[in-house]
Design brief:
The structure holds two protein chains of two kinds.
Chain A (H helix, E strand, L loop, with lengths): L12 H13 L4 H10 L2 H27 L1
Chain B lengths: L2 E4 L11 H6 L3 H29 L10 H36 L7 H20 L18 H4 L2 H30 L12 H32 L13 H18 L2 H15 L6 H14 L15 H29 L8 H24 L1 H7 L3 H31 L5 H27 L14 H30 L30 E5 L1
Antiparallel strand pairs in B: 1-2
Helix pairs in contact in B: 2-3, 2-4, 2-16, 3-4, 3-6, 3-14, 4-6, 6-7, 7-8, 7-9, 7-10, 9-11, 9-12, 9-14, 10-11, 11-12, 12-14, 12-15, 14-15, 15-16
Bound molecules: protoporphyrin IX containing FE and copper (II) ion (CU).
Membrane topology (chain B): Multi-pass membrane protein
Protein name (chain B): Cytochrome c oxidase subunit 1
Subcellular location (chain B): Cell membrane; Membrane
């Protein structure tokens, strides 16, 4: 792997979302990861991770609300 | 990993004798001091543990008055968590992070010196609090009010010690983050970093996030005690439950602070002795990051019996059980790394495999504690004690032992006595299980924690547990002997004592010279 390849394109929001989703499970395919590592900027992961965290909390809350209603 | 490097001899002009250690800004010196400090505190904490187990050897009160017994359990917890485990990991980071990323030193060398020298002050405060009027803090390592609002001067000394330790940890964390982000050798991209470096990077962020929360809580406690505030005092309109929420918002990430670097160590050792790259390196990085995020939203699983709406109980129960998923992925990855590897079982590997075995037991008992109806039964019993000793002793501590046996040849240039080291492992493994496995049964049978006396039906298991604990304690003196023997003399270690070791530190001579990577290696 070298870093002088094509000027990295920017990652789409969808790609960041996917990376974050898989990280919550703790699994990632090698090819996808290499692509992530090249295209996604650190701040995108951080923002994506925070949004992912909020969604995670809200979905557990929704589940709990459904279970208890 | 192909490496071009340049190591040359140096003429150093640094003070000698004691001043060398007081004024040093060298990451290796500071790492060494961290490790020795942590071992000293481990012995102090261990002494307290021996006292606890001696008292619990038989029913009835024999050697420790109840108040002193409570001080023993409190200070045992505080000293082991903040004095032994955490500084040991920071010491390992000091030694290894620069060596593994090809940096000449830590980013803030003077601050590094200060973060270390704060520790002995805090350690002395904790130890000497036993001798002040009123004795040491006795409200448990979690120092819940109102107990912690009541104690004497010992509690204030503890608060001050926690402040200092927190400051030290924050500075250490900032240093580690900056070093990793800014000082990697050319070509060492983030996704090429060794797993130990990754786990420490994420741990350092967790530290920066939650240590200020701890500092805030103890400060509120301090003002409640001395300056007339009532944050946690119901009589003044405050709420003691608030304390528990803030404490555990720090406390649960804290337990991950103590286990993530251990994950990193195991992720270095297993591939080396399986002679295979780590299976699913990238998933490991991802899993570590998500464990760190999730660890911030599960804190109230420590508070199920405090009283909480059903919605809250279910939320924290589900969230806690979900966090076990990325943890399980890691265990899967380590196992898959060993699968069909050409494995050998040197001492570090023994500790790593012991870690996996016993950490899984601790993880499972954690998930059991996370189930609300069960936790209502086992909360504050020996079951919880068993759970967290499986994750902290056979988890964090075993990983630290593994790390020392893995890197000691690099640090001091000599090989330790492998026979003795293996014996240290087996004795630790056996005595640990004798001491703590039976505590599951005690807890399920209803024996509460933090009590100096118990009813007769618990007698047999307690005696077994105490015998195991004494054995475990003695075994650790044996560890000291092994390390000293290795430093004093012994077979010269090769530069790469483990043929499977592929990270940068093994490209250096053994012992690692005082200054390394002054010209950064180039990673291709
Ligand atoms: C699979 C992951 C884990 C789960 C699901 C889990 C769950 C729990 C739960 C529910 C409790 C509260 C029990 C009670 O007080 O009734 C607890 C206590 C505790 N856990 Fe874990 N845990 C996990 C991993 C860990 C790890 C990795 C560590 C540390 C390295 C740890 C350290 C502790 C400690 C120190 C306590 C007791 C605190 C106290 O009350 O003094 N746990 N755990
Ligand atoms: Cu917890």
């Amino acid at each position: 792997m070298n870093n002088t390849e094509q000027p990295a394109e920017k990652a789409s929001a969808m790609q960041v979302a996917k990376a974050v989703f898989w990280s919550f499970l703790g699994i990632r395919k090698k090819d996808d990861l290499d692509r992530d590592a090249k295209m996604i900027k650190p701040h995108q992961v951080v923002i994506g991770g925070l949004i992912g965290g909020v969604i995670f909390v809200l979905s557990i809350l929704t589940l709990v609300k459904v279970v208890t209603s | 990993m192909a490496v071009v490097q340049d190591v040359h001899g140096h003429h150093d002009h640094h003070p000698s004798g004691i001043m060398r250690w007081v004024t040093t800004t060298n990451h290796k010196d500071i790492g060494t001091m961290y490790l020795w400090f942590s071992f000293a505190m481990f012995l102090v904490g261990g002494f307290l543990a021996m006292g606890i187990r001696a008292e619990l050897f038989m029913p009835g009160i024999q050697i420790l008055e109840p108040e002193l017994f409570n001080s023993f359990t409190t200070l045992h917890g505080l000293i082991m968590v903040f004095g032994a485990i955490m500084p040991a990991f920071v010491g390992l980071a000091n030694w290894q992070v620069p060596l593994m990323i090809g940096a000449p030193d830590m980013a803030f060398a003077r601050m590094n010196n200060w973060s270390f020298w704060l520790l002995p002050v805090a350690g002395m405060l904790l130890v000497s609090s036993f001798f002040v009027p009123g004795g040491a803090a006795a409200g448990g390592w979690t120092f819940y009010p109102p107990l912690s609002a009541q104690g004497g001067m010992g509690v204030d000394m503890m608060i001050f010690a926690v402040h200092i330790l927190g400051a030290s940890s924050i500075m250490g964390a900032i240093n580690i983050i900056t070093t990793i982000l800014n000082m990697r050798a050319p070509g060492m991209t983030l996704m090429k970093m060794p797993m130990f470096v990754w786990t420490w990077l994420i741990t350092a962020y967790l530290l920066v996030l939650v240590m200020p929360v701890l500092a805030g809580t103890v400060t509120m406690l301090l003002t409640d005690r001395h300056f007339g505030t009532s944050f946690f005092n119901a009589a003044g309109g405050g709420d003691p439950v608030l304390f528990q929420h803030i404490f555990w918002f720090f406390g649960h990430p804290e337990v991950y602070i103590m286990i993530l670097p251990a994950f990193g160590i195991v992720s270095e050792i297993i591939p080396t002795f399986s002679r295979k790259p780590l299976f699913g390196y990238s998933s490991m990085v991802y899993a570590t990051a998500s464990i760190a995020i999730l660890s911030c939203i599960v804190w109230a699983h420590h508070m199920f019996t405090v009283g909480m709406p059903t919605v809250g109980q279910l939320f924290f129960m589900y969230a806690t059980m979900l966090i076990a998923v990325p943890t399980g992925v890691k265990v899967f990855n380590w196992t898959a790394t060993m699968w069909r590897g050409s494995m050998t079982f040197e001492t570090p590997m023994l500790f790593a495999i012991g870690f996996i075995f016993l950490f899984v037991i601790g993880g499972f008992s954690g998930v059991i504690c996370a189930i609300v109806p069960i936790d209502i039964q086992v909360q504050d019993t020996y079951y919880v004690i068993a759970h967290f000793h499986y994750v902290l002793v056979s988890g964090a501590l075993f990983a630290i032992f593994g790390a020392v046996y893995y890197w000691l040849p690099k640090w001091c240039g000599r090989m330790y006595d492998v026979k003795l080291a293996n014996m240290h492992f087996w004795l630790s493994m056996i005595f640990f299980n004798v001491a703590f496995f039976v505590q599951h049964f005690l807890g399920l049978a209803g024996m509460p924690r933090r009590i100096p006396d118990y009813s007769l039906q618990f007698a047999d298991f307690n005696m077994i547990s105490s015998i195991g604990a004494f054995g475990f304690g003695l075994t650790q003196l044996f560890f000291l002997y092994i390390v000293i023997k290795c430093i004093r003399g012994g077979e010269k270690a090769a530069d790469r004592p483990w043929e499977g070791g592929n990270t940068l530190e093994w490209t250096l001579p053994s012992p690692a010279p005082y200054h390394t990577f002054e010209t950064p290696p180039v990673i291709k």
